[in-house]
Amino acid sequence: EEARVSLGDEMGVLEEEEGAKLHLSYVRSTFDGTGAALVIVVKASYLDMNRLYLLHVTTTTYPPRLLDVQFLNRYSSTLVPSLTCAGITLAAVGVVTQTSQSQHQNGGYLAYATFQTHKSVAVTAVHFPPRPLHATVVDVDLPSEVVPNILPGGVGGCAALEGALAISTTGCVVHVKITLPPSTQKPNRHPNNRTSTKTGSPDTQTVESEPTPLQVRTLSNHLFSSYNASKEREQRDCALMSSLPPSLSEANSPALDQAVMLTLDIINDEPQHKTSHDTLTHKLKQHEAFVTFLIHASLYRRLTTQSKYSLLDVGQKNLC
Q1: What angle separates helix 276-296 from helix 305-319, to the nearest 10 degrees?
Q2: Mean pLDDT over residues 88-94, rounded?
Q3: pTM score > 0.70 for this model?
């Protein structure tokens, strides 16, 4: 019931609406090694909205207490119903402070949840630090040619290796480990309270937070995955927009600018086994396809003018 109230507030649920009701469905759960913490994966549905959440629960009190609720914004509302959780692991995190006399302190818990569709696998790592710091989420999309799907029961942890292990249907064993950067968070429950910049004209200036490198990398992973998925199937603009991860539609311009340029670098750095002329032609077509994707996904119009000129510069260099 505590989770229902928290998710209802987060999703803007209005129970008094006729026929409106928040539905929660259990997906998967796991304890850490000591049994002191529990993470539960749930799907939440309200009207035509579907979301995926991780609930962080402490079991050291009775009754167990809900500590944190994390929305997984990697997965779109249209994708959530068909998504399955192949496995989840949870472990305590030790943090070593950078001082002359290093001390070991509690770094909270790190959960690895592996989700899959019919032909793609993504690992979501969520760090639940000690309160009142907010959670950090990192998503890693595994290469579909190596890991198209996970074998049943093929996800787990290892005492000798940190992170998550997964056995693919191709026979490959994959080890995913997230290295967290040193925490610079202040004790604040609002993750958007960061260094900010003003954008727009003096009459319409808005304050937008500066993204961290980890946020940009995660957003770029979401963008690159969505771009590759759009190439595999013909989609109309409205269908493409509805299949985008919520993180892309919610990202501010500074974060989206950096994520777009980082993704473009990744696309241009893909190895090509062709002649120099064919490589230039391919890069130009790749660039055109990526910009077209940004336009159809309604992301291009949200880029700053400087970022649009940067895209133009890259295209001109590929042309030359």
Answers
A1: 160
A2: 81
A3: yes
